[in-house]
Write a structure and sequence with these properties.
Blueprint lengths: L3 E2 L15 E2 L8 H43 L2 H15 L1 H11 L14 H29 L7 H29 L2 H28 L5 H28 L5 H12 L6 E10 L2 E11 L4 H18 L3 E11 L23 H13 L1
Parallel strand pairs: 4-5
Antiparallel strand pairs: 1-2, 3-4
Length: about 375
């Protein structure tokens, strides 16, 4: 018996008020969990906005300090690093827009809400990192062909250290909170800040080399830093690509399987799918229950399955639970769908899968 209910409410005592049942699928939503999920979503977005505001301020202060030294030294390399830090601070703009959009309620057109705006912001950030790498490489080659002397090397070195420290602090802050709230875009932006820190170190190292009389120190170090930026670009692009392709950590699937497998009434765990919508997870779960269970009892098992998943799987906001009956022997409850299941991302009906497992045990 496979059924899904329209959203309903229940308290922690697990008394279930059942609304009108539709088709043969079970869908359960808890009123108290919905409130918790909304609060969590708003808190995550608030954390993201807080990170963006603080990091923007830190980077602008860093750039301002470097600008003063640019005026004193006339260092073109430091000027480039200063402008780079300003650009990095401005990447907070698309992310702030994304976090603001993510707070908007779902509509009949955008039924999952606006959380994926973060992924679009992530694409913008990856493009900015790529442009940074291209600019750094161009400047390094230009200086290699036409070396330039740098004045006030001591102050330039200090500015390089200030730039590195400011960017590294921002990078750690963004990456830590981004991973905490599950925002790939914020993590990518943190990696971008780290590339700017490398650029600042290039200024420091080039100043040291110039102080030793090596005029090519600036462009050679710049080329090495460009290569380092390309590695960071690869990591950021891979992070966003995985998010756009709905990739999740396989460990999360294994954790979800363990959680579902411990729910009373679940005989077997079928397919489990997870996807990110912004910095929140959504799940689709197939479970096998006894075919002798009543519709109400099968529904209760599905409700408890979602309840456990929401409370025990990090950053999960909602789960759609589908129940399949275990038996009677020889009955295929999904026969009418047999010609369509192959199109659904490789999903195999549980009744078919269970028959395969039983035939494998007999052989």
């Amino acid at each position: 018996m496979s059924d899904r209910n329209t959203p309903h409410e229940h308290g922690h005592g697990h008394g279930h008020g059942h609304g009108r049942l539709r088709t043969l699928l079970v869908r359960a939503t808890h009123s108290h969990d919905s409130a918790d999920r909304t609060d969590t979503a708003l808190e995550s977005s608030s954390q993201g906005m807080r990170v963006l505001g603080v990091s923007f301020a830190v980077l602008m202060v860093t750039a301002a300090a470097q600008a003063v030294i640019v005026a004193l030294s006339g260092s073109v390399a430091l000027l480039g690093d200063t402008l780079h830090n300003v650009a990095d601070a401005l990447t907070a703009v698309p992310l702030a827009i994304a976090f603001s959009l993510g707070r908007r309620a779902a509509t009949r057109r955008f039924t999952y809400g606006y959380g994926r705006a973060e992924d679009l912001a992530g694409i913008v950030i990856v493009v900015v990192i790529a442009l940074s790498a291209a600019l750094a490489g161009y400047e390094a080659v230009r200086r290699l062909l036409a070396p330039e002397n740098v004045q006030a090397l001591g102050w330039v070195a200090v500015a390089g250290v200030v730039g590195f420290l400011g960017n590294e602090w921002v990078a750690r802050y963004r990456i830590r909170v981004g991973r905490q709230i599950g925002s790939a875009a914020l993590v990518a932006d943190g990696l971008h800040a780290r590339t700017d820190g490398f650029t600042s170190l290039a200024v420091l190292l080039s100043a040291g080399g110039a102080a030793l009389g090596w005029r090519l120190a600036d462009p050679v170090v710049g080329l090495l830093i460009t290569a380092a930026i390309c590695f960071v670009l690869r990591d950021a692009a891979r992070e966003i690509y995985h998010r756009l392709m709905d990739a999740v950590d396989p460990a999360l699937i294994e954790q979800a399987e363990r959680i579902v497998g411990t729910v009373e009434g679940v005989r077997r765990v079928g397919s489990i799918r997870l996807r990110w919508v912004g910095h929140a997870l959504r799940a689709e779960v197939d479970i096998v229950v006894g075919h002798e269970l009543s519709l109400v009892r099968a529904h209760a098992v599905a409700v408890e399955t979602e309840h456990r998943l929401i409370h025990e799987l990090p950053r999960l906001r909602a789960a759609t639970v589908h129940t399949d009956p275990d038996g009677p022997r020889g009955v295929d409850h999904h026969a009418v769908l047999s010609g369509h299941r192959g199109l659904a991302g490789g999903r195999v009906s549980l009744s078919t899968a269970s028959r395969r497992r039983r035939s494998g045990r007999r052989s």
